[in-house]
Amino acid sequence: MHSIKSILKAVRNFLFSGLNKEFLIFLFFLALSGIFWLMMTLNETTEREFNIPVQLTGVPRNAVITGELPDTVHITVRDKGFTLVTYAYGGKILPLTFRFANYADEETGTGQIPMADVQKQVASQLYGSTKLISIKPAKYDFFFTYGSSKRVPVVFRGKITTSKSYYLAHTEFLPSTVTVYANKKQLDQLESVEIEPFNMRNLQDTIHRSVPIKKIRGMKIVPQMVRLAVYPDVLTEESVEVPVTAINMPDNMVLRTFPSKVAVRFTIGASLFRTIKPSQFKVVVDYNDLANNPSDKCRLQLRSVPRSVSKAHLELETVDYLLEQQ
């Protein structure tokens, strides 16, 4: 107890010493001048913007809102500072509420709230001295449906480039389809949905990203995010031995080539090479060319290749041949 009294006495002596008395007087007048400045400022007329939440009430349980109302009304008002402080901190301005049944058009699946109704609700919460300068946005509408939906595929939108010696093997989405809620007319015209543009350069490794579906006015998409997987692959040069086939041959003639098989070289992703078979290629000799242009060698033609290969070409363009008559 004695120590506490000693501490209080020391603090009192410090505060009320000659030097500190002058400092306390300075603080008093500083605070007083601040109060006068605040009072003068709050007494001036000024403008301020306020944000008011918007709510759609009384929505039937079987109705799906596919296009929401703007969730906030931005108003600009003019009044004295004292009044504006009341709006900001006094809980004077409440959310705007609009009943679904009063504005919903069952035939079109849309609803529109007139600006006059918005202004009326805003004005009812303001003091008579307050002037309403502006209200934003200028349009308040919503869309709904009673369960009409459709599953559609998700498609890629954007640009992906790979590093040198790589190529883009494929992309996939999880899930690959989404459910879209909208009115029947919109659903009949909808074939797919796109992701927001996705761009990436110099890709080398597989990536997995969550990407948003591009919003469509008047439609509700579930889910709104999908998982995008992008698979690059290393390009490699390979070859296969393909038998030479004769076409347009007379029934009594047989063509023999030397060699009977030729190598076809091509570029393909390393992971896809094991799926390639010689039967997917077709190398031919056209008898009509031999008859029209006799020569010691016959010219080979590469007529068919798998879609997954590129830059396919023959190692030999001509070979020796022999025509036999049966």
Automatic annotation (TrEMBL):
From which organism does this entry originate? Answer: Segatella copri DSM 18205
What would be one Pfam family of this protein?
A: YbbR
- InterPro entries hit by this protein: c-di-AMP_regulator (IPR053154), YbbR (IPR012505)
Protein name (Swiss-Prot/TrEMBL): YbbR-like protein
